[in-house]
UniProtKB/TrEMBL annotation:
Belongs to the krueppel C2H2-type zinc-finger protein family. It is found in: Nucleus. This is Zinc finger protein 292-like. Its main location: nucleus. GO terms for molecular function: DNA binding; DNA-binding transcription factor activity, RNA polymerase II-specific; zinc ion binding. May be involved in transcriptional regulation. It holds the Pfam family TPR_Rlf. The gene is LOC102738531. InterPro entries: GH-ZnFinger_Regulators, TPR_Rlf/292/654. Residues 225-324 form the Zinc finger protein Rlf/292/654 TPR repeats domain.
Amino acid sequence: MNLVHLHRNSWVTRCIVKIDDYQQSQNADLSIHLTLLEYAEKWKTSEDPLPLLEVYTVAIQSYVKARPYLTSECENVALVLERLALSCVELLLCLPVELSDKQWEQFQTLVQVAHEKLMENGSCELHFLATLAQETGVWKNPVLCTILSQEPLDKDKVNEFLAFEGPILLDMRIKHLIKTNQLSQATALAKLCSDHPEIGTKGSFKQTYLVCLCTSSPNEKLIEEISEVDCKDALEMICNLESEGDEKSALVLCTAFLSRQLQQGDMYCAWELTLFWSKLQQRVEPSIQVYLERCRQLSLLTKTVYHIFFLIKVINSEVRITKLFFYINYL
């Protein structure tokens, strides 16, 4: 057994990558790599991200050496490889400063060699990491820079860039931009991905784009975009966001579509939207006072008595009956 010690005098010295003698045992124990990822997730990347990058790259190298001896019976092989690649990409995207040219070249070489060797064994889990490694830097692609700076675009070059990066990497870029409050940049990239004939069908870019618009603040562009979306598709987007644990975005999107139906006096999916909105509002902001105020604001948009009845019905299920009578009088 070989032991590889990482980054002396730091937390990484506790993350030791174990390479078993896979030639003697094809049913390899991969738990050490899962443990490695669990430790890595606790590392404070904002303070010192480079040791963690070293953890990931050494772990990838370990897998490259071991992969020829792993059969399809070995559990978690593809899972851990994919998690390693995703974690590595996430870390690179959030680096406060780009790697130096020398560091980036070393990383490029490592990833490209690893990807080629894994491909020989039919493993393509490092594909999007290898795609990123072909660039001159994580955020240095000239087309990407043009998109994020919202300058005039060359449509052909944009389509070529989007097709090259692929939906997984593009989605991770957008999520990072949203997480770092770069909403205008995230909106611009999500819009292009949503409109792309191939990329737009392989991810949730449309719902991400709409969430970005809703979060930015209501405007004519938002009204225009949601007017073209069927409410059943909107409900699916809301369910997707909720299942992903992003209840705040689900609420933002649900509020936008419910407001549209109320303002237009449209009964189509209005009850489903009202019910979803009520549940999400209670989870995101548990305060009864806030809930009632949000209901009052929605009631001002209604054009039909049926929508008022929908609001009263959900309030009745969430609020004590005495407060319900007060609220009806308040309306």
